[in-house]
Amino acid sequence: MSSNLRPESVRRPGLISRGTAILLASTMLFSGQAFAQESTEPPQDETTIAERFGEEIVVTARRRDESLQSVPISITAVSDEVLEDFRIEDIDNLQDLDPSFSVSASSGRPNAPVYALRGIRPTEAIYGQDPTVAIYLADVVLSPAQGSNLGFYDLENIQILKGPQGTLFGRNTIGGAILLTPRKPGSVFSGEAMVGVGSYGLVETQLGVDIPLADTFQVRIAGRTIDGGDYQTNVIPGPLNGTELGGQTTRSVRVTAVGELSPDITNTTVAMYDNKKTNGRGTTLIAVNPAHPRAGAIPEFFDALARAQNRPITDVESDMDQKDNVEAWGIINTTEAQLADDLTFKFIGAYREVDTEVVFDLDASSLVGILTSEQEADLNHMSLEAQFLGTSFDGRLDWVIGGYYYQENGTEFSPGGFFGGTIYQSGEVRNKSYSAFAQGSFRITPELSLTGGVRFNRDEKEMTLSQTYNGVLCLLQVDDGTGTGGLVRLPLDNCHVDLKDSFSQPTGTVSLDYQITPDVLVYLASRLGYRSGGFNLRGSQPVQYQPFEPETVTDIEFGTKADWYVGDVAMRTNLAIFYQQYDDIQRTVAVATPLGSPASVVVNAASAHVFSIELQQQIRPTENLTLQINYAYNDPAYQEWMDPASGNDLSSTPFYFTPTHSGNAMLTFEQPLPGGMGTLRFGANAAYTGETWINALHTSDTIAQQPASVLPLLKQESYWLLDFTVGWDGIAGSDFDLSLYMKNATDTVYKVGGVQLYTGASGFISAAYGEPRTYGAQLRMRF
């Protein structure tokens, strides 16, 4: 296995004090001088440092192909080899390779991930609220969050762009962007096939074939199947006893066609279909409030808690036949025309539909109708983007200008059970987004470059809400029109509220980078990102109908990217130190309804700042051995947050799912066998996550209401995850490769989400846990 495109950041050795982290940063601020004192020349002229690290890593963070080490942006690039070796098959796995990236689950919904970069995270994944981190496949955003983890196969690489991407990416990327680059077809007939088996009955296959139909027209067909992996068992008495959960049945296919319409015009079409059926993720009951008027009055609830405390977390109780299914299809068409030697036109058009079906049991017990949720939802979105990319002033200025249009329409129907009753909630969203952008990079001198860009954004959002109780009572309330602040309930035959608003914001970027030597770059950058406002899909009262305003992130980042030698050891050090000013933060907080059922309101929680340090250190003593160490320090804090109802100061509320320390260390080793018998390889990745608050609906006020015994349940203590992989590529000189893997080798138990309403509407806490130890084997054939 070659070493090119190894991950440029990896995750989690923490246990470093804040003082140590700052000392490390201040020491390396003068990295140019430090690296200059070391040698960037190859020892004894054996090889260049670029050759020691393998092929040049090409990224598209600025919408053109550039070397990773020359771009003044903090980026993690993960190669196809690492994706395969460590079985990175959905977005959850990706966080083990980048300490600044985190994923949390929506209780029992593995297909509705909530993801964050550098502590910038939405409260939840829900229609009407844009994500803070956008996922792009072939330069097109995947929306909504439900189903955004379906494209993780047959990829050239994954690029994780850190910080606001407010100029060249238009879908509210205030935290960052994740770019998935699918493999393009080759010019000769070839391919590879994989079959794998694993623990808990896992069986998987993957196929990718390049079919050149003509010298100017090539097609690649790729697909995968995944069956099994059910690591949980429903132990409830009755018909559902023995039902397995946690696994999946996935069917995916992607067809990529590239045609040269003329010597100067190329058209690329990507068509895809994904169907992922899961039986959800069972949750575990971990606390019941004896003083709660509802939960505390049900003796059977305490019996369920006692049973949960005396069995493995892989044994769960659910009175529902759980499911979390998602089906999506889409098409992307990109036309690129070389209008002149220094001018290119690119047009990208895309359409995608996503349908989801969800049933899950939030109370994690055999009791019927305590707290359940069902959902049927569909969303379609289309986008059009035009770009002109050029070079001017004798090659000193690289520039891009363009326009972008995005439209999405979706519906969601969500009946939820609450202590014997059923709340029927539905919503329809109709959103549009328009933007125009321009960015240029000017080489003031051969070593010094200035980059500036601006984007003008306008978002138009509409939503229709409906909410009934047991189908006989409309729960929506509106102003009674008397001017006294009184409310009136809408009639059942007219139970809907229409909401509409628009939001706009200019965004942009400016950076200065200096190439101290051919192998050492330093840069200073500042960016402004914007996340559109919107409406609360769960609203039932006028205070909840009010639109929440946009939130913005302005950052200042100093960074260095350096390749250098210490003796015969090749080093690659990428360091980023940044400060983010986070304003008008959108936060979802829990509120009570007239029925006492769980509800929420989205508010703009004043402001916060985030100070962070990210270090990506690669050490390559030989061409066969690589050690990748990555560390992230995050120190977010609210500067101001006043509760408008109580007047209380909420600024001590913690940032959820944002550990202060995280990191990882990845070791890879390859050894060619004599006589052309193939190559043996070994890989290990140890990922660390520091202590983390895991409920996004709590404020400092609601945390203060929890008994001391409950506070540890609102957190996940620090933990390590250890993964291994071993393989034999080109077995005995053949076209077969064999890989063995083990994930979470120490069988660490850790929480990824759950319901925390101990003093709230429901009076209990349940937890969703990450996967236990899994292992398997994959056999690949190249042809």
TrEMBL record:
Q: Which residues form the TonB-dependent receptor-like beta-barrel domain?
A: 317-744
Top-level taxon: Bacteria
Name all TonB-dependent receptor plug domain ranges: 68-177
| Gene Ontology CC terms, in alphabetical order | cell outer membrane
Q: Where is this motif: TonB C-terminal box?
A: 766-783
Q: Keywords on this record?
A: Cell outer membrane, Ion transport, Iron, Iron transport, Membrane, Receptor, Signal, TonB box, Transmembrane, Transmembrane beta strand, Transport
Stored SUPFAM superfamilies: Porins (SSF56935)
Query: Can you cite a GO biological process for this protein?
Result: iron ion transport
The subcellular location is: Cell outer membrane
> Pfam families from the entry?
Plug, TonB_dep_Rec_b-barrel
- The signal peptide annotation in the UniProt record is 1-36
The record ties this protein, via InterPro entries, to: Beta-barrel_TonB, Beta-barrel_TonB_sf, Plug_dom, TonB-dep_rcpt-like, TonB_rcpt_CS
**Could you list the residue ranges that cross the membrane?**
none
In what way does this protein cross or attach to the membrane? Multi-pass membrane protein
The record's similarity note reads:
Belongs to the TonB-dependent receptor family.
Designated name of the protein: TonB-dependent receptor
Which species does this protein come from?
Answer: Stakelama tenebrarum
